[in-house]
# Entry
Amino acid sequence: MRAVIQRVQHASVTVDGKVCGSIGKGYLVLLGVGAEDDESHMRKLADKLLQLRIFEDENGKINRSLAQVQGELLVISQFTLYADCRKGNRPNFLQAAKPELAEQLYEAFLAYCRSQVEKVECGIFGADMQVSLCNDGPFTIVLDTNN
# Structure
């Protein structure tokens, strides 16, 4: 699994002109599921994400986790994180999971995060979404369970 994590002051996702998810301070997570991923990858990625210490403490040091700042999560499914652009100019997505597996692991990821974080919002799996955010820092991290 792959995730692009952006520390945000606020973020939202809109589908068909309606906001379906919105958060304040926290993480915007773009989540991609690979063809070889399973529940263990999902749990590993979620645990790493939730334990990251990328918020500032009272001394200005990057030392606090999402829980320590009562942060929120906005999770967006994004199969394009598995784009392979090594050959030609048109990416292929052969490494991305089939929609059935991707949706199953996306939903499991959301459920797991909801058991740990008070507010978890999300987009709509497979929908055409517009995502707005105010990246705080900017601070962006990429996690991949294969690395």
Helices lie at 39-51, 99-114. The mean pLDDT is 96.
